[in-house]
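User: Some background: our group keeps a shared notebook of sequences we're curious about, and every so often someone picks one and asks for a predicted structure to add to the entry. Today it's my turn. The entry only has the sequence so far, pasted here. Could you supply the structure so I can complete it?
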Amino acid sequence: MNQRLLDLANQFAEYLRAARGYSPNTIKGYSTDIEGLIAFCAKQEIVTLEQLSIDQIRDWLYEIDQRGLAKSTMARKSAAIRSFTGWMQKVEITENDIAGRLKSPKSGRTLPKVVSRDSLNDIFAKLSEQATAENPNGIRNLLSIEVLYATGCRVSELVGLNLEDVDFSRNILRVMGKGSKQRMVPFGLPARQALDSWLQVGRSQLVGENSGQALLINSRGARLGVRQVYALVADLLKDTPTGAAGPHTLRHSAATHLLDGGADLRAVQELLGHASLGTTQIYTHVSVERLKAGYAKAHPRA
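Assistant: Of course. Here's the predicted structure to add to the notebook entry:
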């Protein structure tokens, strides 16, 4: 049965890729969770698919919960298994959805990290100093951070940009988001200046046979990778009050600063590419917390 489940898990992964348009990282996470359940079944000597029940799935979740995993991780694992068993019913492998009644633990949502405007100003000043004609990598690094903060895009969206995705007449980028959904995002003058510098001075020094139409390329001429951007952002943030963090922190910062400045919540939702307004609303909580912190620090009667 374990090989049977592994085969089904591979079919499910292909379904997530081809029919649902899930990102490779999401598919990898779901597959890892499902393989964890399959390994547990092997230890419990569950030999047929008919023997698999919601009770065994709950036992598996209880076992891994004893490792002290975060509630958000447990919720993701529950969601992965529910999606898997729901798919098996949909394609008529099983008559019933085995995990349909499985409930995820409520995850305590933590407020996202936000980089202060002062810290960002210092970061941009540092990057601008390094962005010289003799340092094309420095020009690219400046553009990468400018775009991440200006548009609030995800790091995967950033590195996936092609030259044809830039609308120079309107200062707009076309990005490919989750689920292969495209959206248009605007960028401001600083990002435009960094873009012009990169295209006129920097990119031509690095371009090679493997560059293709990639907007951002590395020192070998290939498309810039996600890990390179992670390393860049973590290095830039390590000496700030925020501490070392990934590119998503710049996305959080862009959304929070927009709302602080009076931007409409639905406009921010569209900019970030959130399917649900509820996802965007977390940033209103960040703004409130920042207001409360400022009040507590400054008001004499706080």
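Suggested note for the entry: The mean pLDDT is 86. Strands lie at 166-167, 172-176, 182-186.
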